[in-house]
Amino acid sequence: MAYISRDNLETIIQSLQGNIPLRLQLPNDGRIHIDRQLPFLIVYRRPCAHTDLGTERLVLGEAAYIIADDTAEHTEELSHLISDILTVQKNVFGACLLLEIWSGPEITDESRQPGFHIYAPTHGASNSFLESMENALLGISINKQNPSVSISYRSQVTPTSFVTLLTDEQIRQLNCLTIGLEIAPIYRDFSTGTLLPFRLHKLHHKLARALKRSLYSFVHECTPLRPTHFHELGRRFMTDPVYEADSRLAAISSRFDLLLHVTPTNALSAWHEFEKHAYQKTPEFLYRPRPLDPGIVKRELFAIEIEQIEDPTLAYMFSKKRQELDRQLTLIADRNTPRFLLGSRQLFGDITTDLLALAQQILDIENKPGHVRDPDNYLGAADIARHARDELSYYRQLDPTFSAQAEVRDDITGVLVSKGNFLIGTDARVVPARLKATLAHEISTHALTYYNGSQQPFKELHAGMAGYESMQEGLAVLNEYLVGGLDFMRMRLLACRVLAVQMITDGASFIDTFRQLHQEYHVAPYTAFTIAMRVFRGGGYTKDMVYLLGLQNILDYIAEGGDLHRLYVGKIAYEYRHVIEELHLRRVITEASLLPRFLDDEDSKGRLQKLQQGITVLELVQEIQ
Question: What pLDDT score does 2 carry?
Answer without folding.
Answer: 67
